[in-house]
Design a protein that fits this description.
2 copies of one chain form a homodimer. Chain A is α/β, with parallel strands linked by helices. Chain A folds into 2 domains: 3-174, Carbamate kinase, CATH 3.40.1160.10; 255-399, VC0802-like. The first copy, chain A, has 13 helices and 18 strands. Chain A is globular. Chain A binds chain B through residues 16, 19-20, 23, 50, 53-54, 56-62, 64-66, 68-69, 71-72, 75-76, 79-84, 86-87, 93-94, 96, 98-99, 143-145, and chain B through 16, 19-20, 23, 50, 53-54, 56-62, 64-66, 68-69, 71-72, 75-76, 79-84, 86-87, 93-94, 96, 98-99, 143-145.
Chain lengths: 403, 403
């Protein structure tokens, strides 16, 4: 008997009919002789609707209050799933994050899981029940409710799989698996049967919406195999696991992109030790993740420092950076919410000769201006105009023979 | 500085605009130098919508799951209220029942408060915050979420007032106070400036929707004055407190009614010791409250036993009673969901000569058949056809010169 953790996203539980259809899928897994824990997201667009509601009473809702508000979306869907399963004659119980022992720090809106106390999860499983856990939520030491950030239900699922030493974690979503690029942008994109944690992590962090990056990190750290598959059919999906690098090194595995990018530039800043810290420390304290960071070489004692944040964080980031820019005597402070990010991903590509050059040449041929560049061992990322992203992804997909 | 607990019902927080309007009212109370704890119900028809949603996935949703589902309605409204207050520049924090320490038994759907651990409430109040508590919810020793039954937010408010030794508990609702009868049925009904706990309790238990009966019991037990008033104007409401009985004895104070009545009759049951227990014990175990009970005198060793339950409980009650009826060899088992209840209420009226006779005569004159009768020291209750309830209330209101 295997222990399987399944996660169903918002579109898979968007209506009562879909909840019943997912419930039948869960029953099939249970009837095959497995123990099953299911993590669910909020129904459809619930989270967006709750955010809209909150903005009707306060333009900038308090983060603690917002987290408690948003957590209700997942509580609703997990109780409905448990009811549906009980209605089909199966023992099932829904657990909120507090009940399931998902303990986090108190960084509202993007809390991180500190530990999972699996006592109650175990007790319910031992009693033969299908356990439905509200995704996305956590609880602090003070019993305050947190949320894990967009897509956090993936992290909930993998964290529970780790805590219970599950045999597998299935992420059911509205796509068939992980593709070499977004199929909506590139019609020739093809599905991968397997991918390494590292490559998936880069794909996820670089804007492939399939998996929440932290869930992939967690899966890698504890060696939990993760299967990404569609909740609408029975096709095999993409298995994220430890892939031997021998054969896959130095190959472009996919093209990722992200349309949700805001850019901030500090121009003409007198260079001195501690400059970066004085800029990024206040952002970190406010819980704003900085993505791409580029600092130019210093000319005549002054430098330019640019970085990107999630587009939604841009206004808040600017409010924090404005006084900082004055303090560090920056000549100019610029921002733009009109950026996009395109990345070429594959293990070892940085050390493979010519991949960076090929990337830049391809974008040049497509008439696309590269605003910022950053590379890691396994990816090359370019910040470009948002409206050029689709063309860039198509061009790179063809260039690296992924079509 | 007084400590005031305020409770706002669902219609008072039905929209973002109303939440903002209630928030201004709360701020006025706080600015007058008071400490304020606010209990809120779910927005408008949220609870009904959640019940409808649950029935789409399971015709008879599990009670534990349903309670967790329904509790989200109050969590949403309490976070929105806290956000609205913070948006107005006031420190405020929302607390779920678990966070506010509202401990109950595990009778889902109608849990009773066992204790209120006010540690966190006190801490937030001491920090100068306005504390918003989700009404209607409780938490068991196992951290499972319960609900207190329809109207349970009143009980939450009074229980918190008791635990914090509040100076007053204000129940804001969509009516101006307690009337001698439902003003929608009797246009001559008049508002009472004050009423005793006992009279209010009877009015509440007999279907006056103004207050949840258990909240009145609780207020009486601990001597918390309760003010019922409108959230839409500043009119003084009705103060429920200990009223000297000297002057008010033997007077009809009001006419209450309830349209939400289901009737079950066991006909031709062989009478034997323990008969009532064998019928009512299984209902109690299932958490079904039985209201009026009538047992006829035994004729030739057989008796008829009739009782009423809330109309919504009728199908469940019948499923429980059917095997019981067989076991106790009842000749017939009848049920009807087409009943209503009309009650004449006032301290000491049972001992006042003629009030019962006057009641029955008045209903006879109005052409209304009385199906069951039950009396207490302070009320006379008649079960009649539901469609006759309005006429009955009007007739009795006029008969006892309440017009």
């Amino acid at each position: 008997m295997a222990l399987i953790v399944q996660k169903y996203g918002g579109s898979s539980v968007a209506t009562a009919e879909r909840i019943l259809s997912v419930a039948r899928r869960i029953v099939a897994t249970k009837d095959a002789g497995n123990s099953v824990v299911v993590v669910v997201s909020a129904m459809g667009k619930t989270t967006d609707e709750l955010i809209r509601l909150s903005q009707q009473v306060a333009p900038e809702p308090d983060e603690r209050e917002l987290d408690l508000l948003l957590s209700t979306g997942e509580t609703v869907s997990c109780t409905l799933m448990a009811m549906a399963l009980r209605g089909m004659g199966h023992e099932a119980v829904s657990l909120t994050a507090g009940q399931a022992g998902i303990h986090t720090d108190s960084f509202y809106g993007r809390a991180r899981i500190k530990s999972v106390d699996s006592t109650r999860l175990r007790r319910e499983l031992d009693a033969g029940k299908i356990v439905i856990v509200a995704g996305f939520q956590g609880i602090t030491d003070e019993f305050d409710v947190t949320t894990l950030g967009r897509g956090g239900s993936d992290t909930t699922a993998v964290a529970i799989a780790v805590a219970l030493k599950a045999d597998r974690c299935d992420i059911f979503t509205d796509v068939d698996g992980v593709y070499t690029a977004d199929p909506r942008l590139v019609s020739q994109a093809s599905k991968l049967d397997e991918i390494s944690y590292q490559d998936m992590l880069e794909m996820a962090q670089l804007g492939s919406k399939v998996m929440h990056p932290r869930s992939v990190e967690l899966g890698e750290a504890y060696g939990v195999p993760i299967m990404v598959r569609s909740s609408f059919n029975d096709e095999p999906g993409t298995l994220i696991h430890e892939v031997s690098r021998m054969e896959t090194r130095s190959r472009v595995r996919g093209i990722a992109h992200d349309l949700n990018v805001g850019k901030i530039a500090l121009v003409g800043v007198p260079d001195r030790p501690g400059l970066a810290a004085s800029v990024f420390q206040p952002l970190a304290e406010a819980g704003i993740s900085v993505d791409v960071i580029v600092q130019n070489v210093t000319v005549e004692g002054a430098t330019d420092l640019s970085f990107t944040v999630a587009r939604g964080d841009l206004p808040k980031a600017m409010r924090i950076i404005e006084p900082v820019a004055q303090r560090i005597a920056a000549k100019q402070l610029l921002s733009s919410d009109n950026q996009g990010k395109v990345s070429v991903v594959g293990a070892g590509i940085q050390s493979a000769p010519g991949i960076a050059a090929t990337t830049f040449q391809a974008l040049y041929e497509a008439g696309i201006n590269i605003e910022m560049i950053t590379t890691s061992e396994i990816r090359i990322t370019c910040i470009v105009d948002r409206e050029k992203v689709q063309v860039a992804v198509q061009k790179l997909h063809a260039t690296f023979e992924l079509d």
